[in-house]
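pinging the channel bc i need a second pair of eyes. not urgent but kinda urgent?? the chain im working w is below, pasted from the shared doc
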Amino acid sequence: MWVSPFDVEAALTSHEAVLEAAVIGKQDADGLVKPKAFIVLKNGYIADDSLLEKLKVHVKEHAGAWKYPRWIDVRADLPHTATGKIQRFKLRDEDLQATRAD
């Protein structure tokens, strides 16, 4: 089933802990492409397993049970263009490089 990254991003940023989010497609062990999220947390929030699980549940409730990100990468910031658009291609490239290194 097709998933819009914008739906997942909107659900993530509607959570009180998330400042910014970007979503890409990532292939799982079965060869299926599923959502992977990159997020920036607001000040005062700590990325622990409990928060990450709450974010997954939040997306399931607000965007659909099949749209939740299977992986969440918490970052200090996301790559942007000069006009402020998130550079998802850089996130895809970084994720591919990290997968190859594993």
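so Residues 24 and 89 are 9 Å apart (CA to CA). and The helical segments are 5-13, 49-63, 88-101. — does that match what u expected or am i reading it wrong
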